[in-house]
């Protein structure tokens, strides 16, 4: 069993629009600066993982989400990232890059295939059946 106290607690949000496109952000900071990934970040002190997902997605994409079930957990260097399936809550559903992101958009399969994504993202999302559906 992995000792999670050795890792920085992080979360990510896996969000699909009504057309089955996946929400991605282009990272503004390391790790993975300039590469595309699901939005997310560190869990702050006193915050639950669900609270962190809601906050991080609002900061990075301007979208309000409702976190659902845990899709899975990945370890990347010092980071333990718990990725949650989320649904859009309210608003126009148009992502706007914010804190820690230089771009944010919903992508279909064809778009996804052209993007430079963070290491291991495609394999991980594919294993969880969370790649773009259209």
Automatic annotation (TrEMBL):
UniProt entry tagged with the keyword Membrane: no
Keyword Iron-sulfur: no
Gene Ontology MF terms in the entry: hydrolase activity
Transmembrane segments: none
Species of provenance: Pseudonocardia alni (Amycolata alni)
Nudix hydrolase domain boundaries: 6-129
Protein name stated in the entry: ADP-ribose pyrophosphatase YjhB (NUDIX family)
Gene3D superfamilies: Nucleoside Triphosphate Pyrophosphohydrolase
PANTHER family according to UniProt: GDP-MANNOSE MANNOSYL HYDROLASE, MUTT_NUDIX FAMILY PROTEIN
Lineage of producing organism: Bacteria, Bacillati, Actinomycetota, Actinomycetes, Pseudonocardiales
Keywords for this protein: Hydrolase
SUPFAM superfamilies cross-referenced by the UniProt entry: Nudix
Record-linked InterPro entries: Nudix_hydrolase, NUDIX_hydrolase-like_dom_sf, NUDIX_hydrolase_CS, NUDIX_hydrolase_dom
Cofactor: Mg(2+)
């Amino acid at each position: 069993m992995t000792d999670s106290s050795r890792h920085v607690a992080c979360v990510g949000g896996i969000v699909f629009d009504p057309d089955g496109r996946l929400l991605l952000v282009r990272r503004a900071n390391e790790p993975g600066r300039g590469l595309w990934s699901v939005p997310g970040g560190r869990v702050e002190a006193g915050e639950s993982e669900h609270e962190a997902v809601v906050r991080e997605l609002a900061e990075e994409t301007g979208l309000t989400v409702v976190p659902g079930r845990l899709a899975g957990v990945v370890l990347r260097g010092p980071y333990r990232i718990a990725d949650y399936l989320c649904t859009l809550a309210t608003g126009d559903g148009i992502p706007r890059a914010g804190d820690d992101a230089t771009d944010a958009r919903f992508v279909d399969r064809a778009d996804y295939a052209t993007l430079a994504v963070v290491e291991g993202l495609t394999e991980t999302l594919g294993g969880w059946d969370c790649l773009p559906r259209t």
